[in-house]
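To illustrate the input format used throughout this study, we show a single complete record. The first block contains the structure-token representation of the backbone; no residue identities are included at this stage. The design step must infer an amino acid for every position from geometry alone.
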């Protein structure tokens, strides 16, 4: 069965006391929600403290990046097994900020996805087009290339143990949200593409929308048939907003 999910992407925000305040506010409110997966993806240094705060809650722990390599001389990198040591279940791979600011190619993203699955982490694979690409009418081509890079290397069946996040780059952190129909169209395109290769995997695939999801627009986005939840940046740092967005999915 297709699962729904709301995941917070804290990006490079927070500190020990802010994180504790935020989680202490959201954990009791989210504990009553049973119809979806819930998670927060936090900066590496806080994995341990957040792991403890999330103990015995229904909120899963995730990281925002991972090395494609198992171990070795990779200064500054963090491996899948290190994330597992701190109870991570999820890891974001291919976020547009990593693709653009750190030049991660679709091929490297695919390697990270494979490494995550090999270590039993669930990759949250982000795909999405820039404004220029949308205006040039090549949104589908871009999404297809990003999906193909992973499917070619990892196989379509691997999507049975992954979550996709469609995040139009022009909507991330800009306050401009894709309209429910714009998002739905791309989600349906992703699912149809997977369906050509394996319809069961496509039916069960959780596809999140990300890009300026707020308490005020979550319900209409989540009402679309191929939108199975959200990857939430800015609004995941505000307790009331993250709670409201999670409730919108569970209604
Ligand atoms: P945003 O970020 O909700 O702040 O737009 C979403 C994301 O980048 O995952």
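Output of the design step:
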């Amino acid at each position: 069965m297709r699962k729904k999910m709301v995941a917070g992407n804290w990006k490079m925000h927070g500190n020990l006391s802010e994180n504790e305040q935020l989680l202490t506010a959201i954990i009791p409110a989210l504990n009553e929600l049973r119809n979806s997966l819930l998670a927060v993806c936090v900066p590496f240094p806080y994995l341990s403290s957040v792991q403890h705060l999330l103990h015995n809650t229904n909120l899963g722990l995730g990281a925002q990046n991972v090395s494609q390599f198992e171990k070795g001389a990779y200064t500054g990198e963090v491996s899948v097994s290190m994330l597992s040591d701190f109870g991570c279940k999820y890891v974001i791979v291919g976020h547009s900020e990593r693709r653009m600011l750190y030049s991660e190619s679709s091929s490297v993203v695919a390697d990270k996805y494979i490494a995550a699955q090999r270590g039993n982490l669930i990759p949250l694979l982000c795909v999405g087009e820039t404004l220029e690409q949308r205006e040039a009418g090549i949104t589908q081509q871009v999404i297809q290339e990003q999906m193909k890079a992973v499917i070619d290397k990892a196989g379509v069946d691997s999507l049975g143990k992954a979550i996709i996040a469609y995040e139009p780059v022009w909507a991330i952190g800009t306050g401009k949200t894709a309209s429910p129909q714009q998002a739905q169209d791309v989600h349906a395109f992703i699912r149809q593409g997977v369906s050509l290769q394996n319809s069961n995997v496509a039916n069960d695939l959780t596809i999140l929308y990300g890009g300026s999801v707020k308490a005020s627009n979550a319900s209409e986005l989540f009402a679309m048939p191929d939108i199975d939840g959200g990857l939430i940046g800015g609004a995941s740092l505000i307790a009331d907003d993250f709670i409201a967005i999670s409730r919108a999915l569970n209604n």
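Structural context for interpreting the output: Residues 5-250 form a domain with the TIM Barrel fold (CATH 3.20.20.70). The chain has a mean pLDDT of 97.
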